[in-house]
Write a structure and sequence with these properties.
With about 500 residues, the chain is of the alpha/beta class. It has helices spanning about 40-55, 75-80, 85-105, 120-130, 205-220, 230-245, 280-285, 290-295, 310-330, 340-355, 360-380, 390-405, 410-425, 435-440, 445-460, 465-475; strands at about 5, 10-15, 25-30, 60-70, 110-115, 135, 140-145, 170, 180-185, 195, 200-205, 220-230, 250-260, 260-265, 265, 305, 480-485, 490-494. It contains 16 helices and 18 strands. A hairpin with a 4-residue loop joins strand 1 and strand 2. Helix 9 (about 310-330) packs antiparallel against helix 12, helix 10 (about 340-355) packs antiparallel against helix 11 (about 360-380) and helix 15 runs antiparallel to helix 16. Bound molecules: adenosine monophosphate and zinc ion.
């Protein structure tokens, strides 16, 4: 079954097929690099990452582009406040965004920066003026005349009958219910970043950036355009108006929007004290893999209520999957195959794929894997898992992880980097004991631990009990729990 995906444009779930061959051309609105990214931003970015990974698993090649908004009202204001250039100001947060994306297992799309495409943006405005859908105001700014685009509102389903022709707004974001001619290009105000171009000096509006860079990278019509639900209006509506006025062709075929994340049932806000960046959570000692798992545990179109209980639960889920995989890798199994295990593995793959094909139902896909792990774990203890059952069971986990990307344990080194960052920023007081402990136990990779356990076993076999106890004590001190079972020594991280 092909992927079925909700399309905000049609308000329906549709079969997804690329417009051209086997290649998916997708564009996601990226961050405005004026601060560290919060977990709401990363809910959307992880949802897009999951879509990308699943499309690839489904056999498509992917051309995925994301913009970096590195000039806008907030950036200009903050850079001026700190007495640095826009470039200096944004490079810190762009770097932080790249690190955070890697922290949470996001595969890097091709990144395009607004400030590196200014001449093309000015050229685009000039063409809109020639088509008489844009106009220049006295101060040298340019606006898009929405009355010239009768389909304005088709994505957000807003009815703008009786809108005020010529009423203008020059903010990047504006009132959700009013239609206004929006700024394509802003003339320079004293002290603001500005570029000299064919349409005069100034800087691009936010909406223009995405139209220009997406079409430059992906063509006038491409497969999918993504972002958080707040971008439907005005941002994406304005992108459509600009792009389709210019080309006369449909801009993006599918519009993919992730629902907003709440924290403990409330809208995330600094004033409520429930606002968390990704780094805040790691500083509290939470593993990046658990955060990623939690962000994908609810389908992207369903409201995700982020809670600390939920985060702890997600960590337990990841640990159970990792331990299951370790058991499969380390145990010695009786020869042969158990038909029940063979069909369990095959059914799980089918259920997982069907769930993701169904508008990326991640909750069901995760559920399917746990419904395999539960009986398979029980079967371990009764000899019901045979040697030939191991590869198909491992293959299910591998397939799961191509999309969810939480099974390889690299939390330790990642958490260490956040700890080092906090020290470098003078934020020692924000480093929790939990983070310090986790970093200590994460110093050892899985391979290091396996090696030490082999040494411990060898020492014991040679009756060097002092030696084996010393290795055991070293592992315990590093937060590794060792258990003696029927299948031999098993270990897990605390
Ligand atoms: P920004 O850096 O504010 O432009 O946002 C980057 C991305 O994060 C956009 O796609 C937003 O729609 C998305 N976003 C912002 N807040 C949230 C939230 N609370 N939940 C989900 N996505 C969000
Ligand atoms: Zn955008």
């Amino acid at each position: 079954m092909p992927l079925r995906l909700y399309n905000t444009m049609s308000s329906r779930i549709e079969e997804f097929r690329p417009l051209r061959d086997n290649e998916v051309r997708m564009y996601a609105c990226g961050p405005t690099v004026y601060d560290y990214g919060h977990i709401g931003n990363f809910r959307t970015f992880v949802a897009v990452d999951l879509l990308r990974r699943f499309l690839r698993q489904s056999g498509y090649t992917i051309r995925h582009v994301m913009n970096i908004t590195d000039v806008d009202d907030k950036i200009i204001r903050n850079a001026a406040r700190d007495g640095v250039s826009v470039q200096q100001y944004t490079s810190k947060y762009l770097q932080a965004f790249l690190e955070d994306s890697a922290l949470i297992g996001i595969e890097q799309p091709k990144l395009v920066r607004a400030t590196e495409h200014i001449p093309e943006m000015a050229e685009f405005v000039a063409k809109l003026v020639r088509k008489q859908v844009a106009y220049r105001t006295e101060d040298g700014s340019y606006y898009f005349r929405i009355a010239k685009f009768p389909q304005y509102g088709k994505l957000s389903k807003k009815d703008f009958q009786g809108m005020l022709d010529g009423a203008r707004v020059d903010l990047d974001e504006y009132d959700k219910d009013s239609a206004r001619d929006f700024a394509l290009w802003k003339s320079p105000k004293p002290g603001e970043a500005s570029w000299d171009t064919v349409i005069g000096p100034g800087r691009p509006g936010w909406h223009l950036e995405c139209s220009v860079m997406s079409m430059q990278e992906l063509g006038e019509s491409f497969d999918l355009h993504a972002g958080g639900e707040d971008l439907v209006f005005p941002h994406h509506e304005n992108e459509i108006a600009q792009s389709e006025s210019l080309t006369g062709k449909p801009f993006a075929h599918f519009w993919f929007h992730a629902r907003f994340l709440l924290v403990e049932g409330e809208k995330m806000s600094k004033s409520l004290g429930n606002f968390f960046t990704l780094r805040d959570l790691v500083l509290k000692g939470h593993k990046p893999s658990a955060i990623r798992y939690l962000l994908t545990s609810v389908p992207y179109r369903t409201q995700l209520n982020f809670t600390f209980d939920g985060l702890k639960q997600a960590a337990v889920s990841v640990e159970r999957l990792r331990n299951f995989r370790l058991r499969l890798g380390a145990g010695s199994f009786p020869a042969g195959a158990n038909p029940a295990m063979q069909s369990l593995a095959a059914e799980t793959v089918a259920r997982m794929t069907a769930a993701l094909d169904d508008d990326l139902n991640t909750a069901q896909a995760q559920g399917a894997v746990f419904e395999m792990v539960r009986p398979a774990n029980a079967a371990f203890d009764t000899g019901g898992v045979r040697r030939d059952d191991v590869p198909p069971l491992l293959a299910v986990l591998a397939k799961f992880d191509e999309v969810f990307a939480v099974l390889d344990d690299d939390d330790g080194p990642k958490m260490k980097r956040v700890l080092e960052w906090a020290v470098a920023e003078g934020r020692e007081k924000d480093i929790s004991d939990e983070l310090r402990e986790a970093v200590q136990s994460g110093q050892l990779s899985d391979a290091d631990i396996e090696k030490k356990i082999a040494e411990m076993k060898a020492a014991r076999a040679a009756r060097d009990y002092k030696g084996s106890d010393a290795i055991r004590a070293e592992l315990t001190a590093a937060g590794i729990i060792i258990e003696q079972t029927k299948e031999g020594v098993r270990w897990r991280r605390k």
